[in-house]
Amino acid sequence: RGPQDLPGLAAALGGFPLVLKPRRSAGGSRGVSLVEGPAALEAAYAFAAASGLPGSPVLAEAALPGPQFSCETLLRDGVAHCVAVGRKVKSAPPARVDLAVVYDRAAEAFRAEAARMVGALCAALGFRDGSTHTEFAVTPEGLKPIELAMRCGGGLTPDLAGHVGGVDPFLAEARRACGLAETLPPPDAPPQAEGCFRFLLFPPGRALRAEIPDAVRHDPAVLSAEVFLPVDGVIAPLRSTTQRSGWIALAQPPG
């Protein structure tokens, strides 16, 4: 289908908002747009078509209402053991880029329900063992999955999840692969920490230098603080995760 089919497709999906994205891309929210009305359809289609891998069609999906979360889970013999749940802070439309993932009590409240959802998804897909990174929305009808990947979350996610849930999912998978004993997170254990994975954003322009104060690097709550700049130093308007300019990750005792 082409852009001329989008109004009819929007109606078939129940109206706006919609999400337009390439079916196949290099990841990182490339080509993803939240479309809130018909006037934005053409630009969102062009953005998705230009951002996908060669020959990739454009997908249109009904946008799920409600806040979005991610869940780090260890799947063992068909049972999902949730390590940590993070609450997502998203960029303003039309971009759908994570600005931060917050591991707090509000997110922790969904841990048991998220484990049941992930377990059901993995059973339906035939997965019985591994590490999963699952993104979902909390809708008026309950938890609805957005995507599931049989891998650990990216970047510092396993480190933060390990501080929050007491089990680093990356290390747990390494131990399983080596045949070593491992500890799984108890389903009713309180979180050991709260955390935040915050991405650094700067206004569009050209960066001259980057400075991270020693006080930040030496703070015991800071797991990592980094600045990533393009080779030419040019910071473009944010439309994908690759355009984020760094991160800071924090973990502190609950409360």
Structure description:
The protein is 23% helix and 32% strand. It has an eight-stranded antiparallel beta sheet with strand order 8-7-4-5-6-9-13-11. Strands 2-1-3 form a three-stranded antiparallel beta sheet, covered by helices on one side. It has helices spanning 6-12, 41-51, 105-108, 111-125, 157-165, 169-177, 214-217, and strands at 18-22, 33-35, 58-62, 68-76, 79-90, 98-103, 130-139, 142-149, 194-199, 205-206, 222-227, 234-235, 246-252. Strand 4 and strand 5 (79-90) form a beta hairpin. The model has no long low-confidence stretch (mean pLDDT 91). With 255 residues, the protein is of the alpha+beta class.
In brief:
This protein has seven helices and 13 strands. The chain has helices spanning 6-12, 41-51, 105-108, 111-125, 157-165, 169-177, 214-217; strands at residues 18-22, 33-35, 58-62, 68-76, 79-90, 98-103, 130-139, 142-149, 194-199, 205-206, 222-227, 234-235, 246-252.
What labels describe this entry?
alpha+beta, eight-stranded antiparallel β-sheet, 23% helix
Radius of gyration: 19 Å
Provide the low-confidence segments as ranges.
none
* Number of helical elements: 7
Mean pLDDT: 91
Structural class: alpha+beta
Order of strands, main sheet, comes to 8-7-4-5-6-9-13-11
DSSP strand count: 13
Share in β-strands = 25-35%
Map the helices and strands.
Elements: H1 6-12, E1 18-22, E2 33-35, H2 41-51, E3 58-62, E4 68-76, E5 79-90, E6 98-103, H3 105-108, H4 111-125, E7 130-139, E8 142-149, H5 157-165, H6 169-177, E9 194-199, E10 205-206, H7 214-217, E11 222-227, E12 234-235, E13 246-252
Antiparallel strand pairs: 1-2, 1-3, 4-5, 4-7, 5-6, 6-9, 7-8, 9-13, 10-12, 11-13
